[in-house]
């Protein structure tokens, strides 16, 4: 389904529809245009225009195409063989917890496939390395991703600024980063997307910052104000979303940023020496 949407210049409303269909991939081929419009929070004519923008005569033709897509590949046990007992007997049905873990495994596999083309991540690493200071934005569900990135980034980058609280202070702190010379902003944006995140990204773009965003889909609502969007799906099998793939993508970005910082290794060695003198760690 993602391949179907890629390569088309979609409006923000159409991105919203695409994002909804990706998140409801199992149901999408069976939804009416009215049902899809309600789920995406758009009008029914917008769904029709979306189908036409993808090259179909209308939404019924798009739905027929989705129904004709091949089913997902058989699940594997991690060794490349079809899951089962080895004698043709299918595996027992997974419980909800196992299904959630399996869903995250699939998200990581998809991320690995995207990283087969490393240029976007390498370009993002250069942007982040060159920004002094480097503001990192993450609100609500994405705050943990932003905080984790900042914890490690501060060991190699001279000035990392965490923006993890909304309200009027967010705009002030973003302005302060711009005045201090920031050239780029890293944003972690995960469902449900706070309105303040979109406002902050628009403010950053208006101030001349290059915006690198990690989101759960290339069609997320924050895609439009982002210069470079790197997708990493979240798991939806539990009561609360899980974010293994976005976290790992954040670490990959850290690696790319370290590669672009000529003194990154020296900074890490200096930190290790200080930590040893202070007896900071048990090992």
Describe the structure.
This protein has 283 residues and is of the alpha/beta class. Helices cover 50% and strands 8% of the residues. It has a five-stranded parallel β-sheet with strand order 2-1-3-4-5, sandwiched between helices. Helix 10 links the parallel strand 3 and strand 4. Helix 7 packs across helix 11 and helix 8 runs parallel beside helix 11. The longest helix is centred in the middle third of the chain and has 19 residues. The termini are far apart.
Short descriptors:
283 residues, five-stranded parallel beta sheet, globular, alpha/beta, 5 strands
Tell me the number of helical segments per DSSP (H or I, 4 or more residues long): 12
Mean pLDDT: 88
Query: Order of strands in the sheet with the most strands?
Result: 2-1-3-4-5
N-to-C series of helices and strands: HHHHHHHEHEHEHEEHH
- Label the overall shape: globular
End-to-end gap: 47 Å
């Amino acid at each position: 389904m993602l391949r179907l949407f890629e390569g088309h210049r979609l409006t923000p409303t159409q991105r919203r529809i695409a994002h909804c269909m990706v998140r409801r991939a199992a149901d999408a081929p069976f939804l009416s245009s009215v049902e899809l419009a309600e789920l995406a929070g758009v009008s029914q004519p917008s769904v029709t225009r979306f189908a036409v923008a993808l090259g179909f005569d209308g939404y019924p033709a798009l739905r027929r195409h989705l129904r004709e897509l091949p089913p997902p590949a058989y699940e594997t046990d991690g060794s490349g063989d079809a899951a089962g007992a080895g004698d043709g007997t299918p595996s027992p049905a997974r419980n909800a917890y196992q299904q959630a873990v399996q869903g995250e495994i699939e998200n990581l596999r998809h991320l690995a496939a995207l990283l087969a083309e490393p240029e976007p991540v390498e370009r993002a690493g250069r942007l982040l390395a060159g920004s002094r200071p480097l503001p990192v934005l993450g609100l609500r569900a994405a705050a943990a991703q932003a905080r984790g990135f900042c914890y490690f980034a501060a060991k190699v980058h001279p000035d990392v600024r965490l923006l993890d609280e909304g309200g009027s202070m967010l705009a002030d702190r973003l302005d302060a980063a711009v005045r201090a010379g920031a050239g780029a902003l890293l944003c972690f944006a995960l469902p449900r997307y706070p309105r303040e995140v979109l406002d902050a990204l628009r403010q950053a773009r208006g101030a001349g910052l290059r915006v690198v965003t990690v989101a759960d889909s290339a069609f997320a609502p924050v895609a439009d104000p982002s210069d470079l969007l790197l997708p990493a799906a979240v798991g939806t099998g539990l009561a609360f979303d899980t974010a293994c793939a976005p976290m790992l993508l954040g670490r990959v970005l850290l690696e790319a940023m370290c590669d672009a910082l000529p003194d990154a290794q020296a900074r890490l060695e200096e930190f290790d020496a200080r930590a040893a003198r202070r007896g900071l760690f048990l090992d």
